[in-house]
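Hypothesis: this fold can be encoded by more than one sequence.
Test: take the structure tokens below, design a sequence, compare later.
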């Protein structure tokens, strides 16, 4: 009776005057195809895409061409596409041969999801709106333009689901067309696994349900035929795959190797159970595919409402949704690296269908809201696709520029972070090796290979390709470094989990100094030092200083880590065997500048630097962390964090570091005879204040710049030389509001915090620059 009442109300509701739902679906598919066709990329990007392209050149799963399990159907299609593009004389035929199938599959996915949704609900308009939501989903739209198998595999899976869903939803056809559709769906399901192996988890449950239905639903002969068709669909690609891989043993060896990498090298809930990772997995799976949080929130709210409508209307429909999408949800959340957002694509249709149900249930206003969602998602993704097709990915932009310098005779030393070296290996194989000598990459100690060569007398140029999340290069003098950054020209959520991702290319001359062991300039370096059992209180911290003519200025700072009752510690700095600085520091932070006369700085090569901490009273030496260091010619501007700044911190999951400032935090500038430009990058204070505080930069009593930030901010000021000199080189950042950390966290932390600061940059003003002060509001940096 309740179902009849709902149906009666639905029938009584005025019909919407729209074009035929099927017409809208085909128009959407045509639009998807045409727009993407004019934005075909000719670059690779992700490690998987390079493996696919190498597989198009020469199929060899044992060599990860492509990576196991092999994707033989997708590679066969890509080879066909490459042959067409090659015969047409177009550049990058292998890459375009991969991309074109994603484009065609993305267009076909719209009518295929329409068929599945219509089989589930029996309502054309709901099915059409759901299908168009799938096609306009930003992640679907963008991923279809990538040389990857994700969208092609999803379309193949939905081709199988379309046949299976219609067969299962139409029991009256069990011995006629319904049986034929079951057999066809089983065969296509087998083929779909050869396009993308994960699709077995998406198509398998519905196929199993159909095969295990009571005899009154499908005759035994139909179910046997369907099982045989499914096996045949697998055999079509599995036999050639095994033959090309050197037999079963060769294929299993490659597969087990890949499985070992997957379980050891990625962060998944099954192996690293934690509430933090669980929350992140849900966000990556259900929020990030819609790119904008507000768009995701709207769609997910509609999906929840749609779930209620479906449950009230038809328990059978809800059961089929659970059967189709439930197993993949569990598999994805537990066994896949959810930060690779494209792995969540198979769950987008489920959310889209449920949201469509709620939209259509709301009548004309609901459908208009749905149209707005489609436009927003499609437009945002469309602009990203255009940017993607016009510029190479970060790693290939880097390799292209290295090749240009190689053509001009560059032969540098090249260092890399271990992860970068591993993830760029296939890209380097595709594009050709960079020039020069590639250094070893010992995990966590990569910079030492570079410093070893400098100590041995290497005087040429040195390059280092860095993971921007690493901070160990703070141990090398940045004054003699040029840096180029390689970033995606669109929101990085579209390529979440890409390997390699963003990169920094550092080009070094002979640095003025470099440090090796026992320091704590960043949380990462401090962690390595602690793990090694090093530090100036245990054994001397080690570095090297390039000897040169003229006076130098040494800056060293850190923290006496003992409790307030501990005795002071004597910290001594040696250049060679000569002590150049000696200071006695009580518990807490310390900072010291020390001029080095020319006779202590002159010479050839690099002189060893060591820092030792000794007790001033009998007993063990209290721990000391060396958090700041620099040494430059006396006329080069240096800055240091003075009173009011807390120790550096790091978020391991985002790999972002920062320092908290208190309500007044000093920046110490030396020498104090030059004008400087200051740039402070900070976090949106609305994360911890209802109203943002007022930020003021002063030099003594002189106010230089102010800002009331209402987002992530870049606070800039040009400080004239007279202001720096009058303040004795001390510039102070003042915040109008602060709080005690422990009062919010319920801990004993008594630090007074005002703002989280990600970076401070200080540079000398050109002598001809007009003294002026500026400030700038919200920014996306760093």
């Amino acid at each position: 009776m309740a179902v009849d009442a709902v149906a009666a109300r639905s029938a009584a509701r005025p019909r919407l005057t729209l074009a035929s739902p099927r017409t809208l679906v085909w128009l959407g598919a045509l639009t998807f195809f045409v727009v993407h066709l004019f934005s075909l990329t000719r670059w690779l990007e992700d490690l998987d895409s390079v493996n696919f392209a190498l597989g198009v050149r020469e199929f060899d799963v044992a060599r990860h061409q492509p990576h196991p399990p092999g994707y033989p159907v997708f590679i066969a299609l890509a080879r066909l596409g490459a042959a067409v593009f090659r015969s047409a004389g177009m550049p990058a035929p292998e890459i375009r041969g991969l991309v074109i199938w994603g484009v065609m599959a993305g267009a076909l996915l719209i009518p295929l999801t329409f068929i599945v949704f219509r089989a589930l609900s029996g309502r054309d308009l709901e099915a059409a709106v759901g299908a168009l939501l799938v096609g306009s989903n930003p992640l679907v739209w963008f991923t279809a333009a990538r040389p990857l198998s994700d969208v092609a595999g999803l379309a193949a899976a939905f081709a199988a689901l379309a046949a299976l869903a219609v067969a299962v939803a139409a029991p009256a056809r069990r011995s006629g067309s319904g049986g034929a559709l079951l057999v066809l769906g089983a065969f296509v399901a087998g083929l779909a696994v050869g396009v993308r192996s994960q699709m077995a988890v998406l198509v398998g449950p519905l196929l199993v349900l159909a095969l295990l239905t009571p005899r009154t639903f499908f005759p035994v002969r139909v179910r046997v035929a369907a099982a045989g068709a499914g096996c045949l669909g697998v055999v079509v690609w599995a036999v050639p795959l095994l033959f090309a891989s050197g037999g079963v043993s060769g294929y299993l060896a490659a597969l087990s190797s890949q499985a070992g990498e997957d379980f050891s090298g990625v962060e998944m809930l099954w192996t690293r159970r934690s509430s933090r990772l669980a929350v992140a997995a849900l966000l990556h799976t259900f929020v990030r595919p819609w790119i904008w949080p507000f768009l995701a929130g709207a769609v997910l709210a509609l999906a929840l409402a749609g779930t209620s409508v479906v449950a009230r209307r038809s328990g059978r429909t809800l059961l089929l949704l659970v059967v189709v999408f439930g197993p993949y949800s569990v598999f994805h959340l537990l066994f896949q690296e959810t930060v690779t957002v494209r792995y969540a694509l198979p769950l987008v249709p489920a959310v889209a269908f449920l949201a469509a149900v709620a939209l259509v249930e709301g009548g004309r206003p609901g459908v208009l809201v749905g149209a707005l969602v489609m436009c927003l998602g499609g437009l945002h993704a469309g602009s990203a696709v255009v940017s993607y097709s016009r510029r190479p990915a970060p790693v290939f932009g880097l390799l292209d520029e290295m090749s240009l310098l190689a053509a001009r005779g560059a032969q540098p030393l090249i260092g890399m972070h271990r992860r970068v070296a591993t993830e760029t290996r296939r890209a380097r194989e595709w594009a050709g090796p960079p020039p020069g000598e590639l250094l070893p990459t010992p995990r966590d100690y990569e910079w030492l290979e570079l410093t070893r060569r400098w100590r041995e007398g290497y005087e040429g140029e040195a390059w280092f390709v860095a993971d921007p999340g690493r901070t160990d290069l703070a141990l090398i003098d940045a004054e003699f470094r040029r840096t180029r950054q390689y970033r995606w020209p669109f929101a990085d959520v579209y390529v979440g989990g890409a390997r390699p991702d963003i990169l920094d290319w550092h080009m070094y001359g002979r640095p003025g100094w470099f440090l090796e062991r026992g320091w704590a300039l960043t949380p990462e370096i401090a962690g390595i030092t602690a793990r090694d059992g090093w530090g100036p209180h245990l054994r001397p911290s080690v570095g090297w200083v390039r000897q040169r003519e003229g006076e130098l200025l040494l800056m060293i700072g850190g923290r006496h880590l003992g409790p307030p009752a501990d005795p002071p510690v004597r910290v001594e700095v040696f250049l060679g065997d000569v002590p150049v600085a000696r200071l006695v520091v009580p518990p807490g932070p310390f900072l010291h500048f020390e001029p080095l006369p020319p006779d202590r700085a002159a010479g050839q090569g690099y002189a060893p630097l060591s820092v030792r901490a000794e007790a001033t009273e009998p007993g063990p030496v209290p721990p000391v962390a060396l958090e700041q260091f620099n040494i430059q010619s006396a006329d080069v501007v240096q800055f240091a964090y003075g009173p009011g700044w807390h120790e550096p911190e790091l978020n391991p999951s985002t790999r972002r570091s920062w320092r908290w400032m208190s309500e007044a935090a000093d920046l110490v500038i030396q020498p104090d005879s030059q004008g400087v430009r200051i740039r402070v990058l900070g976090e949106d204070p609305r994360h911890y204040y209802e109203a943002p505080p007022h930020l003021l930069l002063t030099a003594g009593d002189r106010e230089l710049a102010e800002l009331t930030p209402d987002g992530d901010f870049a606070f800039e000021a040009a400080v004239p030389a007279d202001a720096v000199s009058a303040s004795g080189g001390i510039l102070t950042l003042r915040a109008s509001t602060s709080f005690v950390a422990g009062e919010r966290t319920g801990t004993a932390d008594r630090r007074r915090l005002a703002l989280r600061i990600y970076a401070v940059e200080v540079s000398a003003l050109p002598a001809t620059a007009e003294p002026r002060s500026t400030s700038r509001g919200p920014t996306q940096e760093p």
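The chain is about 45% helix and 20% strand. The chain has a mean pLDDT of 89.
Hypothesis status: open.
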